[in-house]
Amino acid sequence: MVESRKQKLTRSEIKYVAKTVLEALTVLHNGGYVHTDIKPDNVLVDYGQAKREGYTVGAPIWRSPELLLGLPWDTSADIWSFSTMIISLIYGDDWHMFDPSNDGVSFDDDEFEFAILKRHHQFLGPFPITYSEIADRDAIALIIHAMDSIPAEKRKPFHLITEREMTKEDNMFLQRIMKLDPRQRPTAKEISEDPWFSDKLGSGR
């Protein structure tokens, strides 16, 4: 998988990787485990980080919004990380959509994790009102602060990404599975049955 940093994978290869990962996640999740650290470097070779639900682990840029907000989480956190991994594989060059270093915020900055949350809003926001059902007052305050920190002209809605960057099919697939509200994310099993995989396991670039 590390080779993806050196050479961009084809759509067919990305779909093969995605299908393989989803099959493994289905087994883990059915057993009550969460992988907790899905990323290109280790997702196919390292299950040592797998935990029962509830342990906060994994590199910040791959973490789901609920993890960054310190809220309860479950297997749906893996679905978020899986989605971010697919985006990174599509773009290649070790690029990560939610990496705040793209905005000049370094890993050792106290605002690093908050900057990731802001990028969640920038590309996939706004956070749905349903978050009020799962978030406490402090988390809601952080969400509001994150949304207020990104003016409308700085928003980069994911669905408006051009086909020069990503195919329409890939974009729509990611929109279906990458939900800010964890309760709205499909399971690994459901994703593995998505029409996205019926396209001859992905043709083209």
Automatic annotation (TrEMBL):
Domain of life: Eukaryota
Gene3D superfamilies reported for this sequence: Transferase(Phosphotransferase) domain 1
Biased composition, class Basic and acidic residues, residue ranges: 183-192
Keyword Nucleotide-binding applies: yes
GO MF assignments: ATP binding; protein kinase activity
Entry keyword set: ATP-binding, Nucleotide-binding
PROSITE patterns: PROTEIN_KINASE_DOM, PROTEIN_KINASE_ST
Cited Pfam families: Pkinase
Cross-referenced InterPro entries: Kinase-like_dom_sf, PAK3-like, Prot_kinase_dom, Ser/Thr_kinase_AS
Ranges where the Protein kinase domain occurs: 1-197
Region (Disordered): 183-205
Similarity field: Belongs to the protein kinase superfamily. STE Ser/Thr protein kinase family. STE20 subfamily.
Name of this chain's protein: Protein kinase domain-containing protein
